[in-house]
Amino acid sequence: MSKHDHFEGAGVKDHLKRALLKGRRVQEHTHTPPLPSHLFAMGESMKEITILLSLLFLLSTFIHHLAPSLPLFAAALTLLWTLYKAANNSLVAFEKLGRLHQLVEEEHHEIKHNRPQEREELTAMYRLKGFEEPLLPQVIDVLMADDHRLLMVMLEEELGMQLESEEHPIKRGLFTSVGTLIIGTIATLGFCFFPSWLNIALLAALFCGCSIFSAYVQAVRKTQSVIWSIAIGAVSLGLSYVFLSSLIQN
């Protein structure tokens, strides 16, 4: 491959900019934020199942013959949502790992077959970091001497990838399942043994707790995140109540 083909007709700096954007696109989510993704997925699924169970409870207050079977429906909904979220989150994570693996293979191929161009890219990157002659070529020689170290440097410096931050997809699916089952079990037991007014309080407490957990995991604007989550949940359920009320009355 010629130098022109490798850089796609652009200069080294433009090539590096495109490579960095390429790496960032792969690491942007795909529902995977720059934080412990298994905890984020767990918190989101917990909030979602709480909303779904709240809607089911709300529906049972309008359809009275549904009320005796509410715990059974709640258990079924919890199980289905657990399976769906676990499978979906794991699949998304596996797809992301596949794209990361493809980028690693592409970069490894470039290191093996385009060493002069890789050296030029590396020199440009470290010159931008402030390295100058005579230290610059010595640093480049050390990095070029070890293909594995060079691969890691190019992935992190050129593509902006942090491979050590990636979690196994099964871990993400497992934490999602555990969180959903915990919330679903608590709500289902409440439907079995608590009166309606206490179930309302229980569901509200569960949603607030899940919102606080998600905000804590994200570690940014915790208070604002909790307020927004609770407000969105309250508005959604309020609109659902109005819709069901008007629908049944008509």
From TrEMBL:
It comes from Aerophobetes bacterium. Keywords: Membrane, Transmembrane, Transmembrane helix. The chain crosses the membrane at residues 73-94, 174-194, 200-219, 226-248. Its main location: membrane. It is a multi-pass membrane protein. It is found in: Endomembrane system. This is VIT family protein. GO terms for biological process: intracellular manganese ion homeostasis. GO terms for molecular function: manganese ion transmembrane transporter activity. It comes from the Bacteria. InterPro entries: Ccc1_fam (IPR008217). GO terms for cellular component: endomembrane system.
